[in-house]
Amino acid sequence: MQTETIEKLVRVHSGSYIIAISQTSKIAWVAVGDYMGKRVEVLGSSATNAARRWAAAARCKGNGIE
């Protein structure tokens, strides 16, 4: 499988962050980006799902939940 990386702009707590989304298998996508100096990496079932999960994980880190 040839993987393609998509860059997406995601808004979290009034800030904008660029994340990289890649398909790792037929049904798995990974979203990776830095939020407040920390790397956030999540898996999703689609590119959109991975981006939403990344934003949710970043919000948790911003609220002090790890």
Helix-residue proportion: 10-25%
Please count the beta strands (DSSP E, at least 2 residues each).
4
- Principal-axis shape: elongated
Report the total helices: 1
Note the gap between the termini: 33 Å
The H-and-E topology, N to C, reads as EEEEH
Largest sheet: 4 strands, antiparallel
Secondary-structure-derived class: alpha+beta
- Rg over CA atoms: 12 Å
User: Which parts are unreliable, with pLDDT below 50 for 5 consecutive residues or more?
Assistant: none
User: Per DSSP, what share of the residues sits in E-state strands of 2 or more residues?
Assistant: over 45%
Mean pLDDT: 91
The total domain count is 1
Strand order of the largest sheet: 1-2-3-4
Characterize this entry briefly:
By secondary structure, this protein is an alpha+beta fold.
Keyphrases for this structure?
66 residues; alpha+beta; 4-stranded antiparallel beta sheet; 1 helix; 24% helix
Structure explained in plain terms:
A four-stranded antiparallel beta sheet has the order 1-2-3-4, with helices on one face. The chain is α+β, with helices and mostly antiparallel strands and 66 residues long. It has one domain. It is 24% helix and 52% strand. The N and C termini lie far apart (33 Å). Strand 1 and strand 2 form a beta hairpin. The chain contains one helix and four strands.
